[in-house]
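Hey all, sorry for the wall of text incoming. These are the six entities for the joint prediction.
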Amino acid sequence: MSDIDEFISARREANAAVLDQDHLGIKRFFALDDAAYRDGALSGKVKELLGLASSLVLRCNDCVDYHLIQCTRAGWSAAEIVDALNVGLVVGGSIVIPHLRHAIHTLEELQTRPDVSL
Amino acid sequence: MSDIDEFISARREANAAVLDQDHLGIKRFFALDDAAYRDGALSGKVKELLGLASSLVLRCNDCVDYHLIQCTRAGWSAAEIVDALNVGLVVGGSIVIPHLRHAIHTLEELQTRPDVSL
Amino acid sequence: MSDIDEFISARREANAAVLDQDHLGIKRFFALDDAAYRDGALSGKVKELLGLASSLVLRCNDCVDYHLIQCTRAGWSAAEIVDALNVGLVVGGSIVIPHLRHAIHTLEELQTRPDVSL
Amino acid sequence: MSDIDEFISARREANAAVLDQDHLGIKRFFALDDAAYRDGALSGKVKELLGLASSLVLRCNDCVDYHLIQCTRAGWSAAEIVDALNVGLVVGGSIVIPHLRHAIHTLEELQTRPDVSL
Amino acid sequence: MSDIDEFISARREANAAVLDQDHLGIKRFFALDDAAYRDGALSGKVKELLGLASSLVLRCNDCVDYHLIQCTRAGWSAAEIVDALNVGLVVGGSIVIPHLRHAIHTLEELQTRPDVSL
Amino acid sequence: MSDIDEFISARREANAAVLDQDHLGIKRFFALDDAAYRDGALSGKVKELLGLASSLVLRCNDCVDYHLIQCTRAGWSAAEIVDALNVGLVVGGSIVIPHLRHAIHTLEELQTRPDVSL
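and here's what came out:
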């Protein structure tokens, strides 16, 4: 299984275990999180890119992977995504470099997997 | 003097004092920072919005104010900016609310100051 | 006006300005935030203390002040609150000391204001 | 070996290696850290929950696992722990979700291991 | 009163109020914090510089001011301090720039106050 | 392959993949990052130690490993490095302990590898 496939399947299973706890607040948070990236005053496409940059500066590999998949599906090219990652690098500094490395690894795999879905 | 005018003038003066230290690394960092928001694979307009969301989740009021001014100048509407701030709120959680309050205060002042420049 | 009264009134006004933006996601987030501290599997009283410790380690003075007011109203004594702040100090390190100083200042004022409400 | 057993044994060995460096400051910090969770103005039981919420918002899986074990041993039920995690989720935002997933995984394993000890 | 004098006097008073709470854990933490910067395997002088860089990347103005005073007293020149701040800028990214501005302002005032003491 | 050798080889490969994206901003950031640790007003040796403490308080294992290698090559002894890590522990709190454990593990391996190079 590729790294991306493993990530997607582990994420799906773990999210199900979280929701199985049946905590109303957590369920509502998950719904609110999904809703934040739907078309609104801004397009969902632009908001996925905001999610990606935010995830990089907060240095969360799983969040970076998630938004890389969503950004690719939304139609951002690799060059555009790298340009967004550069903003995150300048904002967040050298401490984000390990996460930038991770992002580029995932991005490269995603270029060969245009059909991937969460 | 309005809050925004005060921010802009204090920022200009303090940046000058930083650059007066004449440290080559710092000067190059400032240049690199400016360059990150110029048109590239992504437009400068989109990248200012990435800077705004990143600043909100990292909870930096001065950075939020700076990118709010730049986003407004780049043509993002108040509704679009609020939608970007909402992504930052969901990513960063209730701990960003004080900075969201600050952002809305600045945004409201900016709506009456279409001509503001840094 | 005391520091606490000023905080409460500024917070109330700024929250109103945020909600006036009429963004559904933000409104739902604010509701979710309120709900998280209501009685559930844990009492609201215990959850306010969790909010306080979390706010201290994340180094947010406004959030610390908010939860100090709520913790005092919920019936935690000054000694119990200081013991909670100590957990935050050990978890978060000396970098939280400025926020610990702020917390103690607010806590002292709160002891003379048993009736304060948000 | 289960994930929890592996965590406990790796943690024990690595802590021993740290203390073997024989640095007085580090040794005193470890002692201070232990002491923060003993009964005081607040019960140790409540303080373990504060440690858990703080660890979640600071996004440290090892710290989350440690406090999950301690919270379970102190008598908090799974439902109470999930309610505490929800506070951390709202405070810390979607960026803590990967750590929430991790926490639920550990919590589920702990339910079958009432006897686990550090 | 200058900014530095105001900082020093407010810090002294607020620290006293914290210690007046008479919490043994907090008192021991304060002692441990002081001890960390005394001569050991490394000189106190070098360790103050580590405290400064750490404070900058963690974006705490009060901590930056404190370590700037200590670094100046320990004999680091303005140029050496600026070089340390540059490391913090590169590690922490543009989000630390507001704190770098603050640091340079304090540093300039300190150059005219060789005798300042905490 | 030892943990250090694996880290060095994975880092080298991943850095190459990042630079292969051919983004001018990223390339310039990497150059600026390297330059920050060269002899200047402060020696490169002292600045590596600043990088190490900053990496520890920001809780980045890869960054800690990188600076541990550089600090060892620059001539800092294990005892001096542990003393620097203690500053980071006090500044950053118990949340850095998992990263301190990681650092000690790497440091011990490095003592047997005086010749390691990045």
